[in-house]
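Appendix B, example 12.
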Amino acid sequence: MSKKTRFAELKEIFNTLHGPRGCLWDRQQTHASLVPHLREEVREFVSAVREGDNQKMCEELGDLLLLVMFNAQIARRRKGFDIEDVISGLISKLKRRHPHVFGNLKVKSARQIIRNWNKIKSTEKKWKRP
């Protein structure tokens, strides 16, 4: 019997909360209605960083993850995307933007890495334009 990951458990919790017998308030939320909460949690995380409080940082990152999961769940209900799509997109982006780690690009400094990251990001933005 395989051990369920904490992430799998988190996904199940969100499925329950957004299911027919779940939380009415959760099911009524939209991406737009969650924006104020997202802004607040970012402010709280920044504050915890400035204070150097690891416990608060951990808690606030959990709150940010909650909002990422919440928005992905809303999108899943609307047949837009789900958390697995978010993760897949992030994995692809990290691999593309780190050719010095996942490819053959040679770099000698963090400055070169940042310059290359911005160049790749700029190219990606051009691809997405109509």
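Residues 54-77 form the longest helix (24 residues). The chain has a mean pLDDT of 94.
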